[in-house]
């Protein structure tokens, strides 16, 4: 199982980014997949989750209406579209796959929102 995030970077407040999580070693559409983030000095927190086959999504209150989680089964890739970014969205964003009782994590991608 391997998860590789990409798409992070520096963006101004109000800007947008799209994060990608390329999964290998399993079919991500068969499992719950999530995005988490961890800001400096804070605990890792759930940002968004998508159920197997994409039938339902869950979002943290802090990003509702601004972020959208989705997946492309043909590419075995999950996305996080982030709009109207705020400085408080600055964090390392991690991709997570829950397979059985195991949690798998990517290496993370840095998102910095600053003018």
Task: Please indicate the percent range of residues in DSSP E strands (runs of 2 or more).
Answer: over 45%
Taking the sheet with the most strands, its summary is: 7 strands, mixed
Count of DSSP H/I helices: 0
Number of strands: 11
Radius of gyration: 13 Å
Q: Catalogue the unreliable spans.
A: none
Mean pLDDT: 95
Bin the helical content.
under 10%
Outline type: globular
Class from secondary-structure proportions: mainly beta
Distance between the termini: 37 Å
- Helix-strand string: EEEEEEEEEEE
How would you portray this structure in words?
The chain is mainly beta and 115 residues long. The protein is 0% helix and 54% strand. It is built from no helices and eleven strands. A hairpin with a 4-residue loop joins strand 7 and strand 8. The model has no long low-confidence stretch (mean pLDDT 95).
Please give a quick description of this structure.
The chain has 115 residues and is mainly beta. 0% of the residues lie in helices and 54% in strands.
Write the layout of secondary structure elements.
Elements: E1 2-6, E2 9-11, E3 17-24, E4 32-38, E5 45-50, E6 57-59, E7 67-72, E8 77-82, E9 91-99, E10 102-105, E11 109-113
Parallel strand pairs: 2-11
Antiparallel strand pairs: 1-3, 3-8, 4-5, 4-9, 5-6, 7-8, 9-10, 9-11
Search tags:
globular; 4-stranded antiparallel sheet; mainly beta; 115 residues
């Amino acid at each position: 199982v391997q998860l590789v995030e990409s798409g992070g970077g520096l963006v101004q407040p109000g800007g947008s980014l799209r994060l990608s999580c390329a999964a290998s070693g399993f079919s991500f559409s068969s499992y719950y997949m999530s995005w988490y983030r961890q800001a400096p000095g804070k605990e890792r927190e759930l940002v968004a989750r998508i159920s197997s086959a994409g039938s339902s999504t869950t979002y943290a209150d802090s990003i509702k209406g601004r972020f959208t989680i989705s997946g492309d089964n043909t590419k075995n890739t999950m996305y996080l579209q982030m709009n109207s970014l705020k400085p408080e969205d600055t964090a390392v964003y991690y991709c997570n796959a829950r397979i059985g009782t195991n949690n798998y994590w990517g290496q993370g991608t840095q998102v910095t929102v600053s003018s």
